[in-house]
Design a protein that fits this description.
The chain is an alpha/beta fold. The protein has eight helices and eight strands. A six-stranded mixed β-sheet has the order 1-2-4-3-5-8, with helices on both faces. The protein has a two-stranded parallel sheet with strand order 6-7. β3, α4 and β4 form a beta-alpha-beta unit.
Length: 329
């Protein structure tokens, strides 16, 4: 993922909060969403998709693992969605290294006017710069939780919606090059952290369809850890408070209030920042963002592997997202 706390150009971005508010304000009173008729989310399937991504190895830019994993995701989404776009783009890393990225955009029910945007990043970090062992700081990260977990949940959601269509259009974007910001040992800090989230910056300024928009968006990042704590992240609340409160209402109604905490935490740099800022789509971030532990223990380390993934957490996040999609319109 990215650096832990929000040091972006706050004054500039906060001016866009009002402009980025959703045109539709969602009712924030608590409803018993446990009675909503939704298809069953299969955590075993989601876990298998996480494991398959990890089987390729770390998905760092321009690597064979990155190429093969991209092909795997694209092939899967083509089998479960109406249309899949491969948005390739050229950019540079913090040190000027030229790289090519690919955003993968899968579309379900393309004729629907009301649309929901779901997203996660599919790359993994090239440097384990938060590892306790400094000898690992130049090693790539597997990214089972930081990357693959969100992708696995969204793949399962795509499979499910094909079996039980919903009235809304669904657009699933897998952002590339989210996690390649400058490593801590590089002693480099971009003023506005634009060295992170390169894929979402590109997509948000070069939408896959002209004038594309969505009613709201949900970003998933680090959503598989066994001791998950999802809080109301500052920027999500600033850009899309009614959406965040609605999703947290859904979670509470389903019995997941111990995971989706009614607690506000500092803002972070993640893909939702640029979707809100440039694409003007109100998007929230469901992300491991514990103020006490600073993300999760294996963040940006070589131990972010399958042992960090809990099917119980995948189930909770997947069910909350599905219930939101099928009930919040």
């Amino acid at each position: 993922m990215k650096i832990s706390k929000f040091h972006l150009l706050l004054a500039a971005l906060i001016l866009t909060f009002v402009a980025c508010k959703p045109s539709k304000q969602y009712n924030e009173q608590t409803t018993d969403y446990s009675k909503t008729d939704i298809p069953l989310f299969n955590a075993d399937s989601a876990y298998s998709y996480v494991a398959e991504q990890c089987s390729f190895g770390p998905r760092v830019p321009m690597s064979e693992a990155h190429r093969r994993c991209g092909e795997y995701i694209i092939d899967f989404m083509k089998r479960h969605c109406d249309t899949v776009y491969e948005q390739r783009f050229n950019t540079e890393l913090y040190d000027g290294t030229a790289v090519t990225g690919t955003n993968i955009i899968a579309v379900i029910n393309p004729s629907a006017t009301d649309r929901v945007l779901l997203a996660a990043h599919w790359d993994s970090r090239a440097w384990a710069d938060n590892d306790k062992d400094t000898a690992n700081h130049n090693k790539p990260v597997m990214g089972a939780n930081d990357g693959a977990s969100g992708v696995g949940i969204l793949m399962e959601i795509a499979r499910i919606i094909k079996t039980k269509p919903c009235n809304q259009g669904i657009d699933i974007v897998f952002f590339d090059l989210e996690d390649q910001g400058a490593p801590s040992w590089a002693d480099y800090q971009a003023e506005d952290q634009r060295d992170w989230c390169l894929g979402s910056q590109y997509w948000s300024q070069n939408l896959h369809l002209p004038f594309y928009t969505a009613n709201y968006g949900i970003l998933l990042d680090m959503v598989g850890y066994s001791s998950a704590r999802f809080t109301k992240e500052y920027q999500s609340m600033g850009y899309a408070e009614s959406i965040m409160n609605k999703v947290w209402d859904v979670a509470a109604s389903l019995g997941y209030g111990n995971i989706f905490l009614n607690e506000r935490t500092a803002g972070i740099m993640d893909d939702h920042v640029w979707v809100n800022h440039y694409a003007k789509i109100p998007m929230i971030d469901i992300v491991q963002n514990d103020a006490q532990t600073n993300f999760f223990p294996h963040w940006h380390t070589t131990s972010d592997d399958l042992k960090a993934i809990s099917k119980t957490t995948l189930q909770a996040v997947g069910k909350v997202c599905l219930t939101t999609i099928y009930s919040v319109q």
